[in-house]
Amino acid sequence: MAHFSAFFVIGLFALTIVGLIRYQAQPERVFGILLLVLYCTDMVTTEQVISSFANKGLLTLILLMVCSIALEKTKLLRQIAAFVVRPCYVQTWVRLYGVTVLSSALLNNTAVVSTMLAPIRNNQHHAASKLLLPLSYAAILGGTLTLIGTSTNLIVNSMVLDIGLEPLSFFDFTAVGGLLVLGCGLLLFGVSSFLPSYTASKTTAADYFIDAKVSALSPLIGRTIEENGLRNLESLFLVEIVRDGRLISPVGPQELIEENDRLLFSGDIKKVTLLNQFDGLSLYAYENGLPIQNLTEVVIRPESLLAGKTLKQVGFRALFDAAVVAVKRDGKPLSGKLGDIELNPGDYLMLAVGQDFQARHNLSKNFYFISGVQTEHLLTGRKACLATFGFFSTIALSALEIVPLFQGMLLLLGLLLLTQCLYANEVIARLPRQIWLIIASALLLSQALSNTGALDLLSALISQHQQAFSPLWGLVLVYVLTWLITELVTNNAAAALMFPIAYGLAFSLDSNLHSFILAVAFGASASFISPYGYQTNLMVYSAGNYTLSDFVKIGLPMSLLYGGIVISAIVTIYGV
Question: Where is the RCK C-terminal domain (predicted)?
């Protein structure tokens, strides 16, 4: 009976891998079914189910991802992105690689790549396809430098805690990760010349038209569009500048900003709050004292008194207790200052409204109401400083082993909620439920392998073939299997599935357990050939118009060198 239970769990392990390959887009469902089967067949206890979801390492990962949301809402990452792009390709590549590696070592590498995507994709100097794949690979390599650099390292740490071992330290990965950053970085620079030069499709100014004014004391004045980081904003595009009655269009990257310039953008209205992160750049709604966190979208009716008139002529603010943030006209591009545009029936207006707006009796005569639009809530001033300083202080205290990472992140989350840098609904909406379920289910699978004696069967099998399994070949086997599962499935699933196998193998071979743990962590991050194994690869896959052959051509030599460095470094530094 005991052997039947062991083989049953081993069968579930194999079926889970098959399910993950078959349903790559739905790993949480595969692991959810695994969890239910393990529990319903009494392979795990109720207490083990509860402890898996409440695992300290897993909760630390969740807290880290939630607290990083506040950092994403500051202008720090966008300032970093603006620093990268330069006319010289080599200079741009080196800056991109260095900045991405360092950022990914301390921040969520998915957030780093998502912030860099728009500036790289929309830059005027280089084909985006020459830079986006190096961006993803740099994020992967940077994530290997520290405990918090990638979710796979934290997943492995959660499983280390689950079996009762000492937690991995912040810099346990740095020695091997540093060699990877140097060695693979040099190779990546060499093979980047083989990347295709795909031209990105041009974005047309067919969306909302947004008007922002440069104030007299703005630090933007006297600097170019490119230096100010205004050229490649995420989903917002600088269409033209109105200066002393003249229209400057198209706007070149070297155009200097002057006092009282009107900068006219087109794009996603939800991103309009990005403009508030530039000191001295104000929207019409803010000039009128109206907030733009929640906007109201309306369409001008045919019988409206606005038809054929401008916003200035009708006295819009006094008439409706609202200010126009942006205008959209289907089928036609708009031009000129927002207040000078002659409005037509059918024009879409995005309104920032005052408290008296809903009480006005003239609304239904002038507008069709479409919907409310919630803009992105970004942080400025003291809140931005608090989010940035708080996050990096917590990381520093953890790295110096003064305050445990879990405790620091929990206290930081409380502070962010109390100061309204984060809101409860944001936390709930961005809670990484998928990762939580995957890791908790994988922890349960590990428990089931132990409960049923499946790991003892592995130990017995190895002892019968002792000559074929040396510690070195065991380490290589663990790394290669983890790498293959990462390429076929995902990095998080690979780390979660391979940890119990690595633990059992190291125990059976009487090897250095720490080396086997690191082999799993680094193997789970070795996703270079497939665009589906790592989130950052998937993000740049469509953005750069890449094909699968592009990943294979660049990723295969990267994978081979990466694996060689990992195995050599682990054996040399830690032994087997």
Answer: 197-281, 283-368
Cα angle: 66, vertex 16, 492; to 5 degrees:
30
Cα separation of 437 and 35, whole Å? 9
Buried b (16+ CB within 10 A) or exposed e, 184-203: bbebbeebbeebeebebeee
- The per-residue pLDDT for range 397-436, each reduced to its tens digit, is 888 888 888 899 999 999 999 998 888 877 887 788 877 8
How far, in Å, CA of 436 to CA of 53, rounded? 7
Give the per-residue pLDDT at 66.
87
What whole-number distance in Å separates Cα of residue 92 and Cα of residue 119? 12
The neighbouring-strand residues paired with 263 are 212, 241
For every residue of 375-417, DSSP letters joined together read PP----HHHHHHHHHHHHHHHHHHHTTSS-HHHHHHHHHHHHH
Cα 198 to chain centroid distance, Å, stands at: 24
Whole-structure pTM value: 0.69
Q: Return residue ranges of the chain for CATH 3.30.70.1450.
A: 205-283
Among candidates 168, 277, 157, which has minimal Cα distance to 212?
Answer: 277
Cα 548 to Cα 509: distance, rounded to the nearest angstrom: 39
Quote the CA–CA distance of 151 and 434 in Å, as a whole number.
13
* Helix orientation angle between 548-573 and 513-524, rounded to the nearest 10 degrees: 160
Q: What percent of the chain has pLDDT over 70?
A: 90
Nearest CA to 489 among 497, 480, 479? 497
Helix axes 46-53, 433-451, angle to 10 degrees: 140
Gyration radius of the chain's alpha carbons: 27
Domain at 205-283: CATH code: 3.30.70.1450
**Closest of 142, 131, 219 to residue 174, by C-alpha:** 142
CB 272 within 8 A of CB 292: yes
Give the count of beta carbons closer than 10 Å to the beta carbon of residue 47: 8
**Amino acid residing at 82:** A
Enter the tokens of residue 162. 């689950």
